[in-house]
Amino acid sequence: MRETNWAANLTYRAAGLHRPATLDQVQELVAGASRLRVLGSRHSFNDIADAGELLVLDGLPGEVAVDHDAGTVTVPAAMRYGELAARLRAEGLALANLASLPHISVGGAVATATHGSGDANGNLATAVAGLVLVCGTGELLSAARGAPDFDGLVVGLGALGAVTRLTLDVEPDYQVRQRTFEGLPWDKLFDHLDEVTSAGYSVSLFTRWGEVVDQVWVKTRVTGAAEEVRGELLGAVAATQDRHPILGIDPVNCTRQLGVPGPWPDRLPHFRMGFTPSSGEELQSEYHLPREHAVAALQALRGLAGAIRPVLQVTELRTVAADRLWMSPQQGRDTF
């Protein structure tokens, strides 16, 4: 087998890849394997999803079950967020948040506590109201929020079994505006960090650690109330054309900006479904630290700018709300 991850920096060492068509086949494969991992949309940059054998679940039935009374949707773990968003919009429903790109699978994002941004937004795993997984013995385990140890099952890093279906919280459909501000002075960010990160429902900052923070992307829910159109944000000026997070790259694959209202799945991610996200082949690393240490960390990194910049495409700075999930990076603390 010569399968690689999305960035092509990793070739999986697994001897075989299985694509079962039924749940019974999943149970049989899991029970019979000495070491097996589920392979999602391959957006991990390390070998956490690698093992002697790999299991791909996109061949299972793709039924999506909406429960309007409960405010939930149950989906196959292999479904991608962009596909799920289209199904939800047809029902007049939405998810509370999305990651930077809609190409990732629901199961993989939940298992790794993948996140979007927003002072009050938890990572994507916090939307999980229930799950079904195949344990190492091949037995089925179903669990719902409120059950004993449920908070230890959701973010499992693939270690607890093969999650086949997930039930997620949903809410009424909504629209979002996205505005980009350029050239935020570092001193303004250090002195007004809370004001910057709370400027919208979801806020992301992009920098190459130069003289200013290059861009601030502010995503705001459309409420119907009159909106004050900001021309600047603490000295950062509103962009007059769409931007890409990485300077110099055509923004054609990015979601619309300039304050044009659009459906939540067309604004909350940075990149559009069906197009190459970010710059394509690249390596990413991610660090989470307690929110209260954010300014000190940023100041320290500013001092290392000369060493960082030559090997960097861009740094994204985001906030994520605390949660109760045992292996979540946000467990018990707001993070930056």
Task: Describe it.
This protein is α+β, with helices and mostly antiparallel strands and 336 residues long. The protein is 16% helix and 23% strand. It is built from 8 helices and 17 strands. The protein has helices at 23-32, 81-90, 106-111, 150-153, 186-191, 193-197, 294-302, 305-308, and strands spanning 16-18, 36-38, 53-55, 65-67, 72-76, 93-94, 128-134, 140-144, 162-169, 171-172, 175-185, 202-207, 212-221, 232-233, 236-238, 262-263, 315-317. The strands form 4 sheets. Strands 11, 12, 13, 14, 15, 16 and 17 form a 7-stranded antiparallel sheet that branches. A 5-stranded antiparallel sheet has the order 4-5-9-7-8. A hairpin with a 4-residue loop joins strand 4 (65-67) and strand 5 (72-76).
Q: How would you describe this structure in keywords?
A:
17 strands; globular; 7-stranded antiparallel sheet; 336 residues; alpha+beta
Short description:
The protein is built from eight helices and 17 strands. It is an alpha+beta fold.
- How would the global form be characterised? globular
Along the chain, the helix and strand elements come as: EHEEEEHEHEEHEEEHHEEEEEHHE
Rg computed from alpha carbons, rounded to a whole number of angstroms = 20 Å
Largest sheet: 7 strands, antiparallel
Structural class: alpha+beta
